[in-house]
Amino acid sequence: MDEHRKEPEKQELPRFDFMKEQIKERPLNKRKLLRRTVITVSMAVLFGLVACLTVLVLEPLFNNWLYPEAPAENITFPPDSEEMLPEDMALDDAELEQETAEPPPEQKEVVDELEVYRKTYSRLQKLATEVSRSLVMVTGVTEDRDWFDNMYESKGQTTGVIVANNGREYLILAAAEPVQTVQTITVTFYDESQAQAQVKMTDPISGLVILAIENKSVQDSTRDQIKTAALGSSNYASLPGSPVIALGSPAGMSGSVIYGMATSSGNALDTVDSRYKLITTDICGHREATGVLVNLSGQIIGVIDQKYNEPELENMISALGISELKGTIERMSNGNSQAYLGIHGIDVTKEANEELQVPFGAYVTEIEMDSPAMQAGIQSGDVIISLNGRTVGNFEEYIKALSDSTPGSTVNVTLMRMNQEAYTSMNIQVSLGELR
C-alpha cells in the first residue's frame, strides 16, 4: 500500500528573472547648491553686521545709562598781560609782608642770576633786530622751458647786506653764485618791500658781488626802516672766545638768529693775489648758511661763507673776516677793476729771516698757470720786495700795492731769488692782467 502511496509533487515557484532593481543617485544641481551657499554666507555676513552695529549703537547708551560720565571742562588760557593796571599794583597786607620779606640767600642769588640772564638775551635780541635793518634777501630768478614747452622758474637765494649808499644807489654785498647768469634779481628789504637790483661788480676770488639798487626805486617808507651796516674789525687778538651773533640765514631759513662764540680768527686762506682770513665759531648751522657775523657793538665782523669748512665741520658757521674784505668791498662799490698778477704768497717770518736769511717781503709759494707772473718769469720761492716803486715788506703790503695798480699797465717788480747759497736781486717787467 505504501508502494502505492504517491509522494506529493513539489510545486516550482514562479521565476522573476525578468525583474532587476537598480538604485541610482539623484543628479547634483550645482547652480542650485552654489546659490544656496551664497545666500547662507550673505545672511551670515548680514547678521554679523547687524549685530556689530547694534552693539556699537546700543553699548554707549547702556554705558551712559548705567555709568553716567561727567561733562568735559572747557580749556581756557589766561590772556597775555603786557602791563599792570593801577588797581593791580596795590598789595594787601599779607602780600606786602611776603614781598618785603628778605628771601633766603640761595634763592636771592638764583633770582639775580636769572634776571641777568634774561636781560642779557633781551639786549641781544634788540641788537639783532637793529642790525637786521641792514640785511636783505637777494633772489635771482631764471625763466626757462622744459621738454614739453612749459615755462618754469628756477630761483637762487642768499642774504645780502647794505654796505653803502653813494647818493644814487644802495650798494648791497652778497654771495655771487646765486645771482650768476640769472635774468632778474629781486631784493627784499627789512619791511618786506621789494626792488630790482643790478650787478655792479663781481670778485671771483672772494666769490662776492656788489648789487646796485637805484634810490628812486626804493619807497620812502622803506628808507625810514633800512640802514647802512656798520663794518667793524676782525683783526683783534681777543676775538676768539668773544660772543658773536649769526644773522641772515645761518640756520638755512631767512631771518634766523643764532648766538655763539668765535673760536678762531687767524686762519689765512690760500687765495691768488689776496689774503682773506676765516673766522670760525661754535655755532652749528646749515651747510649752505648765508649771512653775517656781528659783535656785541652791532658791527659786522664777517660774511658767512661755508665753502672753506673741513668735511667734519661742514655745519659749523664760518665767515670771511671783514677787515680783509673792506678793500675788496670798496673797490667793487666804486666800480674799479682789480689788477691781476697771479701769485700765491705768505709773509716771511722773523725766524725764517734770522735762521735762513730769507729777506722780508712777499714770499711766493705758487704761480697761477698762464698768469702774467708766469709769463714774466716769476718763480715759486722768489721774494717780492718792491712793486712799481712801493716797498713790500709782507704779503699784505703786496696786496695793497697791487690793488693800487691799473689792469693792463706794465709795472716793475723787484724780487730776491735764491742763487746757489745767497739771495740776489732781480728786476722784472710785468704786464698786469685784469681779474675776471
SSE layout:
Blueprint: H1 30-66, H2 86-89, H3 93-100, H4 105-132, E1 135-145, E2 151-165, E3 169-175, E4 184-188, E5 194-203, E6 208-214, H5 220-225, E7 243-249, E8 256-268, E9 277-284, E10 290-294, E11 300-304, E12 316-321, H6 322-333, E13 339-340, E14 343-347, H7 350-356, E15 362-367, H8 372-376, E16 383-387, E17 390-391, H9 395-403, E18 410-419, E19 422-431, E20 433-434
Antiparallel strand pairs: 1-2, 1-4, 2-3, 3-6, 4-5, 5-6, 7-8, 7-10, 8-9, 9-12, 10-11, 11-12, 13-20, 14-15, 15-16, 16-17, 16-18, 18-19
CATH architecture of the domain at 339-434: Roll
- How many β-strand stretches? 20
CATH homology superfamily name of the domain at 339-434: PDZ domain
The value of Rg in angstroms is 45 Å
Which percent range describes the beta-strand content?
A: 25-35%
**The CATH topology of the domain at 339-434 is what?**
Pdz3 Domain
Shape: elongated
Which secondary-structure class do the elements indicate?
alpha+beta
Mean pLDDT: 83
Enumerate how many helices there are, as a single number: 9
Can you characterise this structure?
The protein is of the alpha+beta class and 436 residues long. Among the domains are: 135-225, Thrombin, subunit H, CATH 2.40.10; 243-333, Trypsin-like serine proteases (Thrombin, subunit H, Beta Barrel); 339-434, PDZ domain (Pdz3 Domain, Roll), CATH 2.30.42. It contains 9 helices and 20 strands. The radius of gyration is 45 Å and the shape is elongated.
